[in-house]
Amino acid sequence: MDGSQSPIFIVGAPRSGTTLLATLLASHSQISCGPETHFFPYLEANYRHLATVLRDANWPSKATEFVGAIAVEDHPVAELFGVTPQAIYRYLATRKPVLPALLESLTEPHRQALGKYRWAEKTPNHILHLTTLRRLYPTAKVVRIVRDPRDVALSMAAKLPWTSDVPLHSAYLIERWYRQSKGFFESDRQSYTIQYETLVAQPTETLQQLCRFLQAPFEPAMLNTKAAAQHTAPAHETWKNQVAQGLDASRCLAWQRRSPQRAGLGPSPDTSLQAISTVCQEMIADFNYRPLECNLRPIFAHHTSERFVRDRHQDIDQLLNHGQLLVPCNPLKLSVGEQVVYCDVPINGQNYGKSLRKFWRFCLTLVALRLKGVTVQFCDFGPGPQAEKNWLGQLAAHLLKRLGSPVELLAMIGQSSSRQ
Known about the structure:
Layout: E1 8-11, H1 18-26, E2 31-33, H2 39-45, H3 50-54, H4 61-68, E3 71-72, E4 75-76, H5 77-81, H6 85-93, H7 99-114, E5 118-122, H8 130-136, E6 141-146, H9 149-159, H10 167-187, E7 191-195, H11 196-201, H12 203-214, H13 229-232, H14 260-263, H15 269-279, H16 281-286, E8 297-302, H17 306-311, H18 313-321, E9 324-328, E10 339-342, H19 352-372, E11 375-378, H20 383-388, H21 391-403, E12 405-406
Parallel strand pairs: 1-5, 1-6, 2-5, 6-7, 8-9, 8-10, 10-11, 11-12
Antiparallel strand pairs: 3-4
Helix pairs in contact: 4-6, 4-7, 6-7, 9-10, 10-15, 19-21
């Protein structure tokens, strides 16, 4: 496929400007972009059904049902795209039974209805599925937008109904998404990164550079987002309603201007901002955002999942009140005598090929840490998270318990990792 026809995928952390960027592209005369599909996590969650769908003797009957069942917050994605089950069926009937056809049964009819030449898709959490995305779409353009993580954390806490109202808790999600996807953007030649702050401060120049990467002509009309917002920002997602108003430079680095009352940071806003900055320090350094000095003592942690942070938020807040912070890290970068706390074993789901690769990496890391002289500790995952692990995840958890030692977070008050 010619580069000027390749699909475009837009990814990034929530509240980092993904909807704005999608709407700017959807304002282009040649590019369509609809609402979020959450297609790749849907594939992951329904992995065991894919063979049945693709090998259906009555193709595309089961495939039509499969696509029609994709929903975001109980809203069918096909309805948000304005694509009927009949249109999905008709499109799939013209295609071979392959996974890309399932996604394209949404994006292609939408593109054709708008009379566009090329489609883009925006789902922030597709940043966690880049390996699958690249395997299915080897020539696709992947565009990431990044924003100062302190602004992202504050905005997530204030705007998103499905996340914590404590900005620090969102910082762990931002950090994990960034760390997990960093290697892809360092090595993939068909990927591109935009900084939100540069986009809103210098929109014309930034979009001109992006269009060159996308092999599409720049159009001044891209800066008018009002018309395209109806496609990228569904009415029920009220936190996206600002996108129709276009670019607003006043949203940049808002964390530096917020008072404690407006920021919702609690009694010690400086401490909370220090904590967010420390959790996301790798991203802040990589994109030359302003660092903050931190007086908090670190407790190095691994696999700080959103579930763990949500379930243990009281413990994390207690640590913060005592001047300590759970800091995600790459444990292989720790030195002899240091310690790391495993907060989860993220091996689950029905894709056992993927789980097996995760399992071996998990085992090799544990062995390397023991040989290196790094102390391995782990927190109790709880009955719920433990039950969600597949048999490889349960085996990995058993190995962790054999090679590590249990620890309660509150028992670590007064202790910290040796590195400052």
